[in-house]
Write a structure and sequence with these properties.
Layout (H helix, E strand, L loop, with lengths): L39 E3 L6 H4 L3 H10 L4 E2 L9 H13 L3 E2 L19 H21 L3 E4 L10 H19 L5 E4 L15 H11 L4 E6 H7 L3 H8 L3 E5 L16 H10 L5 E3 L8 H15 L4
Parallel strand pairs: 1-8, 2-3, 4-5, 5-6, 6-7, 7-8
Helix pairs in contact: 2-3, 4-5, 5-6
């Protein structure tokens, strides 16, 4: 997914970390007690490759060994079926939950769902049908949906009605399988021109669709840029939020590298009783192994809210 390209930069977060693991998985680390996090933070493939190697299975073992109890993979639907099955088996064995993957082709520069074009809508629904099979294979509950670019030829009211109709039809496909598409608003700076940008807009759409299969993915990085006022906006949208993603701003790297007070944000989410997944959709502020240790240390720091 193009928007998931990250840049390694900024200063090294202070602190040290003890790692656990096994050389059988392609890495050699120290023996230590596995850390227990209060929330289900979910790394992605590549985040710890300098410790675990390129093999996705080895990376999953490394994540589990560090105490991470979830995993997300935007590109899961494009992976070989045998690898999907192997990753799912590994997650079951390591008691890790599968987070989001991207459910469909995203139109970054031209309208699709907002346009009301019937062919574009059917393409989207076919992608959802295929995503259902992927979700079953990897034991996923959530899938990311981005409604695409605005249609400058139509007023926002018509565009919104078109998007809602597409999402209602997609929900009818997902509901029998107890699967949830999570709508992700994206900020104007990184993704100018997209239809869905703010959490109040996503909330309004979810209320109109009125389905347990259509909820909000609240990406804290995007919404810090788009609207700020994070905790009050999370509170206002709470009953429609099914998933969170994380990234500090500026830089879109791990917590503690930017301006967001993640310890307080996570404390609020935890106190609200959130039991879902917190996707670590960000880059590492530093390269190589020291950058990977910085990520692990950062999460230990901001998770210490109790």
């Amino acid at each position: 997914m193009k928007r998931r390209t990250f840049i390694n930069k900024t200063a090294f977060a202070a602190g040290t970390v003890s790692l656990t693991g096994s050389s059988a998985f392609g890495y050699s680390v120290q023996n230590a007690a596995k850390h227990s996090f209060h929330l289900k933070y979910a790394p992605h493939i590549g985040m710890f490759k300098h410790h675990a190697g390129e093999d996705p299975i080895s990376q999953l073992h490394f994540m589990a060994d560090q105490g991470f109890s979830a995993f997300e993979d935007n590109g899961m639907s494009g992976r070989d079926i045998k690898l999907q099955e192997n990753m799912a088996r590994t997650m079951r064995e390591r008691k890790m939950e599968m987070g989001v993957f991207v459910a469909h082709k995203i139109y970054w520069t031209e309208p699709n769902l907002a346009s009301g074009d019937k062919d574009k809508r059917e393409e989207f629904l076919n992608d959802i049908r295929k995503a259902i099979e992927v979700a079953k294979r990897v034991n996923a509950k959530w899938m990311t949906v981005v409604p695409g670019h605005v249609d400058l030829r139509l007023s926002m009211g018509y565009q919104t009605a078109n998007v809602i109709e597409s999402l209602k039809q997609a929900s009818a496909l997902l509901e029998p399988h107890n699967l949830i598409m999570v709508l992700e608003p994206l900020n104007f700076r990184n993704h100018p021109g997209l239809f869905l940008s703010g959490s109040p807009q996503a909330y309004e759409i979810c209320k109109a669709v009125d389905s347990p299969s259509c909820k909000i993915l609240f990406d804290i990085y995007h919404q810090q840029i788009q609207e700020g006022n994070l905790i009050p906006n999370i509170e206002a949208c709470w009953d429609e939020i099914a998933y969170f993603q994380i990234g500090d701003n500026p830089g879109r790297n791990e917590p503690t590298t930017g301006e967001i007070n993640y310890k307080n944000v996570f404390k609020f989410i935890h106190e609200k009783g959130f039991k879902g997944i917190m996707g670590m959709e960000h880059g590492n502020s530093l390269p190589d192994k020291k950058g990977e240790l910085a990520v692990i240390n950062a999460y230990k720091t901001v998770d210490a809210f109790i």
